[in-house]
Amino acid sequence: MGPSAGGSRVAVVEDDALVRATVVDTLEEAGFEPLACENAEALARALAAGRQPELIILDLQLPDRDGLAVAGSIRSSSDIPIIMLTGRGSDIDRIVGLEIGADDYIVKPFNPRELVARVKAVLRRRVPGAVRTAERRRGYRFLGYALDLEARRLTDPDGQPITLTVSEFDLLTALVEARGRVLTRNQLLDLMHRRNDDVFDRTVDVLILRLRRKIEPTPRHPRLIRTERGLGYVFDAPVEVLAET
């Protein structure tokens, strides 16, 4: 089992010294171990030195490298959760960040309590068994895919793991558990525990596109996750409930 949220190392990649200090102090007060990085190069040095964080808070406006490029580079080789720091109104950056594989975003200026809540939520969803330690393992199987809710893992029909971000896993779980029923974007956000004032409509759409690329044989003509125009999305496949006693 991975670490609990408390005491987890969180990299803070932010070039603004005041904002970086605020985030670092907020995380320390909440019991985390912040790793302050003033730019992308500092993060790269920390990772090369083996200082692996459990989560990365990443400003998208960095002086030495575009934050979206940094997020894409991280996601290409790691499933470390990424929370983006974005400016208010920068929907395009948020959409691109979600497409690349970020798990959440926080709009500046932000409430410190909200930041801590977001960090805890992402880490809690990432740690296998963190919430259901006393429950039996359970999951679902569909068209040869196996979705393990305890290990938070998806395997393909050949038994090979498919890498999902925290948000992708939560969205797939919500869809599978409501199989055959159309869910609106707001319902999906509720089931993913992602309802907040800064969530925009495209969030679910972007995550759906990412999921389709990973599990649909032909993403442009989806069979598993269908769009019901004007309504939302529906998971349309036979599902077998898995459980261990």
From TrEMBL:
CDD domains given in the database record: trans_reg_C (cd00383)
A GO BP annotation: regulation of DNA-templated transcription
Q: Which domain of life is it from?
A: Bacteria
Q: Where are the transmembrane segments?
A: none
Alphabetized, the UniProt keywords read: Activator, Cytoplasm, DNA-binding, Phosphoprotein, Transcription, Transcription regulation, Two-component regulatory system
InterPro entries for the chain = CheY-like_superfamily, OmpR/PhoB-type_DNA-bd, Sig_transdc_resp-reg_C-effctor, Sig_transdc_resp-reg_receiver, WalR-like, WH-like_DNA-bd_sf
Q: Which residues carry this modification: 4-aspartylphosphate?
A: D59
Per the record, the major location class is: cytoplasm
Positions of the Response regulatory domain: 9-123
**UniProt source species:** Stappia albiluteola
Q: What is the lineage of its organism?
A: Bacteria, Pseudomonadati, Pseudomonadota, Alphaproteobacteria, Hyphomicrobiales
Q: Where does this protein reside within or beyond the cell?
A: Cytoplasm
Q: Which GO terms describe its cellular component?
A: cytosol; protein-DNA complex
Transcription regulation in keyword set: yes
DNA-binding region(s), residue ranges: 137-237
Which intervals hold domain OmpR/PhoB-type? Answer: 137-237
Q: What is this protein called?
A: Regulatory protein VirG
SUPFAM superfamilies hit by this protein: C-terminal effector domain of the bipartite response regulators (SSF46894), CheY-like (SSF52172)
Q: Which GO terms describe its molecular function?
A: phosphorelay response regulator activity; transcription cis-regulatory region binding
